[in-house]
Amino acid sequence: MTATSGSDAEGGAQRLETESQPTGPQSPRATTGSQSPKAKTGPQRLGAKIESQDAAKPRSSKPKKPTFRVVSSGRCGASYYGDPQTTASGERFDPSAMTAAHKTLPLGSKVRVTNPANGEAVTVRINDRGPYIGGRCLDLSRAAFAAIGNVSSGVMKVKYQVLAR
Fold this sequence. Notes:
alpha/beta; Barwin-like endoglucanases; 2 domains; 6-stranded mixed barrel; about 25% strand; globular
């Protein structure tokens, strides 16, 4: 390595000072005397660090899900149903849709249902009334029930969160 002349180093230090830190002669980058050529590449190295930090951030290929405010929550038993019928909202029941029945929630409400046993969750839309069996507050469509638990169990304990519209 060869040292550069004092005037080159000072000019380089001044250039570095104005490009990266315009604070004055007290700046740690503003030095007198000789500097190695490696030190002249400070802003480029700094830029490389910023780029490498951006590259190190994990980028999700999935679009972010919309976030909803939780209006109320609770725990109850949930079952599923899959018989074709007309729902209380007037639409034809689709067992493969993410829908559910509730006795009192407004039709069209969104509810996040979580199986506490495995942590799986699904968001359903209330489109029907029921269930009319004690201890249960939700009747999920077959697809919604299968997304969070084993359909062969028929009934499971769930946590639910009513989401703001």
